[in-house]
Amino acid sequence: MKNLxxxxxxxxxLRGEMGPEERKAFEQLLREDPMxxxxxxxxxxxxxxxxxxxxxxxxxxxxxxxxxxxxxxxLKNELMPFSTKVVKLWRTYRNYAAxxxxxAIVTVFSTLIFSGHLFENNASxxxxxxxxxxxxxxxNDLVKDIKGKAKGPLNPGEFGGTGFALSSxxxxxxxxxxxxxxxxxxxxxxxxxxxxxxxVYLDPAHDIAVLQIVDPxxxxxxxxxxxxxxxxxxxxxxxxxxxxxxxEPVYGKGYLSSNTGFDGDTVAYQVSIPVxxxxxxxPLLDNRGNVIGIISGKQDRTDGAAFAIKSTYLLQSINEIxxxxxxxxxxxxxxxxxxxxxxxxxxxxxxxxVFMIRVY
Amino acid sequence: MKDxxxxxxxxxxxxxxxxxxxxxxxxELIYQAHFPMILQMVIxxxxxxxxxxxxxxxxxxxxxxxxxAGDFELNSKLKTYIYAICRxxxxxxxxxxxxxxxxxxxxxDVEDSAADLEEYEHQHRQFQLMQTALSQLGExxxxxxxxxxxxxxxMQDICEQFGYTNADNAxxxxxxxxxxxxxxxxxx
Lengths: 360, 188
Fold this sequence. Notes:
The complex is a heterodimer. In chain A, about 35% of the residues lie in helices and about 25% in strands. By secondary structure, chain A is an alpha+beta fold. In chain A, strands 9-10-11-14-13-12 form a 6-stranded antiparallel beta barrel. The N and C termini of chain A lie far apart (about 115 Å). Chain B has helices at about 1-10, 10-20, 25-45, 50-70, 80-95, 115-135, 140-150, 155-160, 165-185. The N and C termini of chain B lie far apart (about 60 Å). The chains are: A alpha+beta, B mainly alpha. Chains A and B meet through helix 1, helix 3, helix 4 and helix 5 of A and helix 3, helix 4, helix 6, helix 7 and helix 9 of B.
């Protein structure tokens, strides 16, 4: 109860309810008794805090009264008549918008996936292998013509390309994309001789394939007239090719137009030369009869932009063939017998070493 | 003509003076003059009118605290000061709700608004504690305490209000209530 009295005293002191005598006596007490002084200070603090709290409540109350007088909605519309409308629309429809966007994304990607555009980034690059026959193979095809007497199969094959001899003992170079997925391969020269070949080495990274003639009737191709260029060719070099876009060999002439291929591909040259499906795998030769590349593709919807794999990469691939895969030595011809000949003579000589490749 | 306009829109200094003297009118003037600006800011930055109201009222409390403490020096326009405080408060709230905005970053800032806010927030937490303590106290203690300490009513008035026959009984009751309140408040 002593405490109660003290609190009452403190309060009446702080509120100025004490008479002058009483004040003096109380101040005296505070000075004399540190315990009382301590309690006085604590209570003073608490009261100040409560006062502040009360004041805060009054202020808040007053503000709420003022706030009620303001027509917030009207003010809002006045301040931002346009944006609130947009925001409202957005808030109402954002779920629908999200669904629509998701549907659009699904549609776009599924279209891309099903049409193959997503994974084939060389959309405007077309490999020049020829589709001879679009009818798919079936069991019937396989059993057909078991008794056939003709040299080589009667079926003209599914796809075709061009290849050329690397050495006289029957090694042939062509594009990887020509022989990709083949279960049997035949080559046929301009004279109509057909040989069975097998793949010896595939280099998908550089789109190069090396084949070997395995036909029992095969003897030798004879001495090759052309050589292989070990360095890069120069811009503006006159070049020509022989290929099989149809059943007959077709000559094409042009010039080397860029040191890089499609999309800056350093493996290939850009060549301005007329080529068509079936030209793939054909040799690209310079004026002196050096093979400088392998025709591999062209850019769609662009005139005069064909591409050829550089001969340096062909030589590199040949070097990488494991020894055990070669039953005969692959020795590249080093003597060129074309350099001084006119183009017609060159072609006549080369013709026997360029083959149509039939893929089954 | 010019004088007339000036008198209808009192300057910042008059408003500050009004706050210091506790004039009701000045609060009304500030509210009506500056609330639209804050409403616009909050609404165009992911908020609604209720949030604008909270933010604005908080900024007014900060201003009042500062003016009442006597250390308010108006270095900028009152409008700028209020805007800066509200902007800080709103950014903080957006952060807590992990919403974001890109329009609030460019406004000019008032130097000491951060310190003012910190003080306010500390005080605000204390007040919230007091509010809970009071609500836990129950009646009639809550009202007695509020009337006496918050609203400065005299014991005489409280006696009449609660029908106590003598002031001593009322004082004893108030004392008991205060002891319980202290327990609740300091425990938290």
